[in-house]
Amino acid sequence: MDRLSFKKILLCIDNSDLSFRVAEVALDFARTFDSEVVGIHGYNAAMHEGAFRIMEPTLPQQYQKEEVLQKQRAVHTKLINVGMEKISLSYLKPLEDTFNAAGVPFRMRVKEGKNFKAVNELLSEEGGDLVVVGSSGFNSNGNGFIGSVCLRILRAHDRNFLVMKKPLALQDRPVFVVGLDGSSSAIMALRAAKLLAERFGAELHLIYVFDSRLHKDIFERLKESVINKEGFSFNRKEQEKIHDEFIDKGLARVGAMIIHKAEKEVFGETSEEPLSTHGWGLVGERSGMPRIKRVLEGHIYKRICDYASEVNAELIFAGRTGRHFVEGMDIGSVTENVVRFSPCNVFVAQQEEYRGWEL
Fold first, then answer.
1. Residues 6 or more apart from 336 whose CB is under 8 A from it?
2. Residue 265, Cβ neighbours under 10 Å: how many?
3. Coil, strand or helix: which one is 55?
4. Closest by alpha carbon to 99, among 108, 112, 90?
5. Strand partners for 10
6. All residues at 6 or more sequence positions from 268 whose CB lies less than 8 Å from its CB, including other chains
7. For the chain, which has fewer Cβ within 10 Å, the N-terminal or C-terminal residue?
């Protein structure tokens, strides 16, 4: 765990109801890990200035003279810039008082600009170990909706992110679900889950999901477009049975191997009991925390989200990119969809140095 720490937490605030739940979690983490917290807010004065210009033709006739408009523009520009900066600081000032009262170092940073761009610039300037942000601001629009600021900063920064969707309950042995796929980033997610589970007394669920239907669909298309048309001898029922059994059992075995390897790498130990798509695989508390291991079948991001709902998880941990990583990829599609559709909060672990997929 040498490279994983949360000494500096960047807290993104927009004054929405969810952002104050985000602040509560940042305070819990800061107390637990002895962290410094930087409160961040971006404000877009230019947007308001543009809106004022659009409305100028609607002003009464006495304000339509150019010299009067020029004066009004100057006054409005100063009022908007100074006023919005003060409003932004007013969002953060109560948090500064709360964090300082708890003995947690807290600094305020605000910046003018298009909201996501201003926040991106502040994140780049500050560095930090963990970004805590709400999944949406004032315009939340139901299941699958992610706010533009959240999505854009998540894509732009290879950093540990805690994306908050609801209050995070860390008492009474919370459940953490870790999605494993054989990638080095997933190992990083498991390391983060282990660290937080140790501090908050959580129960870890290590899961691997495989999508056999995808492979079967590809086989069906291959069979119809190539095999049957090229004159190959094909025993439909027998070959389909063999193929389906090979895919199902093979992918389940791969999943078990991936879970065991990840467990060994992070915990230094593993149990080699067979895992299947049925029943629980329960490991004792040799490492000081209960671990449950499952190999599951289904559409990957959806099955992860459904499983988190089934076990009433507080957090899903996912690597930023998966085993199909290529240079230039900002975030994996499974992880992005988990962030979108998760029933709970999501920890996205930063990109681990890519080492390929080895078992």
1. none
2. 13
3. helix
4. 108
5. 38, 131
6. 287
7. C
Nearest to 190, CA basis, from 199, 177, 175, 203: 177
pLDDT band for position 181 (50/70/90)?
Answer: very high
Confidence of residue 277 (pLDDT cuts 50, 70, 90): very low
Q: Check whether 72 has a pLDDT greater than 70.
A: no
Paired tokens of 353: 């140095």
pLDDT in tens, 191-207: 999 999 999 999 999 99
Residue 1 pLDDT grade (very low, low, confident, very high; cuts 50, 70, 90): very low
- What CATH number belongs to 1-167? 3.40.50.620
C-alpha span between 189 and 195 (Å, rounded): 10
Decide whether 1-167 matches 169-359 in CATH topology.
yes
Give the number of residues written for the chain. 359
The pLDDT of residue 44: 76
* Distance from C-alpha of 80 to C-alpha of 70, rounded to nearest angstrom: 15
Question: How many CB atoms neighbour CB 173 within 10 A?
Answer: 12
Measured CA to CA in angstroms, residue 177 lies from 166, 205, 252, 311 at distances of: 16, 5, 18, 9
Give 270-275 contacts, CB < 8 A, sequence gap 24+. none
User: Does the CA dihedral 207-208-211-212 come out positive or negative?
Assistant: negative
Every domain of the chain and the residues it spans: 1-167, 169-359
Q: Token digits for 139?
A: 């315009």
201-244 per-position pLDDT tens digit: 999 999 999 987 665 565 555 555 555 555 555 556 666 666 56
- Position 79 pLDDT exceeds 90: no
User: For the segment 260-275, what is each residue's pLDDT rounded down to a tens digit?
Assistant: 999 999 998 776 555 5
Look at domain 169-359 and name its CATH class.
alpha beta
Q: Give which of 325, 283, 99, 319 is closest to 192, Cα–Cα.
A: 319
Instruction: Cite the beta strand spans of 270-330 per DSSP E.
Output: 281-283, 291-297, 315-319
